[in-house]
Amino acid sequence: MKPFFTYLTLSILFLTGSIFVTAQTKYTGTNRQLPPADSIRYFTGRFQPNGSFASVSTFQMQLRITDSFIKGSYRLAHSEIDVELVGAVSNQHELILIESANGKTTGAFKGMLEEDESSLRLSGVWSNASNGKLRPFSVDEVR
What we know:
Blueprint: H1 2-15, E1 39-47, E2 57-66, E3 69-76, E4 83-89, E5 94-101, E6 104-115, E7 120-128, E8 134-141
């Protein structure tokens, strides 16, 4: 059921035109290519305090980027549970990662992918699927 739901979610995103995926698409306005196919990238990041959240929560993220598709996981600090991620990045640097646990969608990361000379940075808003709460996030690649 989980693979079907993931397929359905990504199909809906692609059909609505919110994400345009092409293999090895160049980033708009630059000469940089997407990261090499099947490369695993490691990140550290944090959720910013927001509303009822009183503190910053840190986490680690691991992503495998194949063309414009992304698959990986993240783990909150002091946790032993990896949360699965699947998503895509558009040629406009837009990023969406759907998170799931036990076959159910639990949240989504939506934001932008930025690249400097040596690393990637992801930033945007994480949303909780069950209650709609939002938290800003940012992650930086670890080299």
